[in-house]
Amino acid sequence: MSGYQSSLLKLLDERGYIHQVTDAEALDALASKQVVPGYIGFDATAPSLHVGSLVQIMQLRRLQQAGHKPIVLMGGGTTKVGDPSGKDEGRQLLSHETIQTNIAGIRRVFERFLTFGDGPTDAIMVDNDEWLSKLEYVPFLRDVGRHFTINRMLTFDSVKLRLDREQPLTFLEFNYMILQAYDFLELSRRSGCRLQMGGSDQWGNIVNGIELSRRIDGTEVYGVTTPLVTTADGAKMGKTARGAVWLNAEQLSPYDYWQFWRNTQDADVERFLKLFTDLPLGEIAALVSAGGAAINDAKVTLATAATAMLHGEEAARAAEETAKATFAGGGVGADLPTLETDDADLPIVSILIGLGFVDSKGEARRKIDEGAVRVNGEVVKDPMAVVATAEEPVKISLGKKKHGLLTRS
Question: Which family does it belong to (predicted)?
């Protein structure tokens, strides 16, 4: 369906968030006449989410911008089970204490993107452990489990792909989709929730929740999924050679976060500006229409806007200035990754590992042999070279995009 009437679906559609919608006409009508509480679930497997979750975080931001109520559902209960979607093996089970610590870290990210409070469109955060851990097994099987058939559950990609690869799928994980469906029912009852959003891989789970709410309570609820966000070369969003692009500053510095967006491929800039910034569509069109070398200005705009949204304007501007000093002027910016040492000198191989530029001594030596390593702009040719530390920071570079500082502590 196109030609949406509600500001919600118009906004999601024009900025590229819609992949599938259940009963788009009815959802459009509902969103046109009332505040729609909508939720997305996030499991707490780490103390931070990474940029692969950002499109879902932005979906909740758009929901609030369109005058509706975001519900952030933290999976304190479902994290104890494990979502089999896209996984080849079972998730490591975490303690209750670890899960709660992770939720506290993740909440700080959401506070950057959403306005929380008690108002009709203020965001709320809830934890499904509040109801899932209190369920009694036999009543749950009788009241909820009878609405699910094994035949249908085996057709869902989250299960089917795992079995096709002949990877074990535990009964624990097999229950995940039932628990997620029950979350929708519970949020409908507790908070009047009428919408679940998520990535395209969650379509089956969302449909399960819609059908469960209809069968048990007779309530009409809806689902919207986003396209799977991949880069122009087909890589999964947020996966880099150095690992995940975390959203908490403790896991990834604002400078490295800025640099991640600055390195966006040309073909992805317009789409990422629409998805991950609040820039008006007209301004985005003007930025990318210039073409040629101007695309780099658009990348800087993307990097600064995305970083400001997560880490604040000051951190974003500092990252931009550091990049200018490092790349344009050949200078040293204050926000570069830094390795401090008490030693008078350090082997270049150890420095590259310490800065996180490489994972092993062998990789470091190969980069040196390729002529990719520089110290204060001078190419290093000897893998056995040592670098003297001094009061002034020493600039270490790997290729054109990785730069760091060696300092005496």
Answer: Belongs to the class-I aminoacyl-tRNA synthetase family. TyrS type 1 subfamily.
In the chain, domain spans: 7-226, 253-328, 338-408
Binding-site residue numbers are 39, 176, 180, 239
| Tokens of residue 356, six digits | 């996180």
Domain 253-328 has CATH 1.10.240.10: yes
DSSP per-residue letters across 111-141: HHHS-BSSSTT-BEEEETHHHHTT--HHHHH
Annotated binding site for ATP: 239
Binding residues for L-tyrosine: 39, 176, 180
Q: Residue 299 and residue 270: Cα distance in Å, rounded?
A: 9
Query: For residue range 328-352, what is the model confidence (pLDDT) as tens digits?
Result: 544 455 567 778 787 777 889 988 9
Query: Which CATH number, 3.40.630.40, 3.10.290.10, 3.40.50.2000, 3.30.450.20, labels domain 338-408?
Result: 3.10.290.10
Please give the model's pTM, rounded to 2 decimal places: 0.79
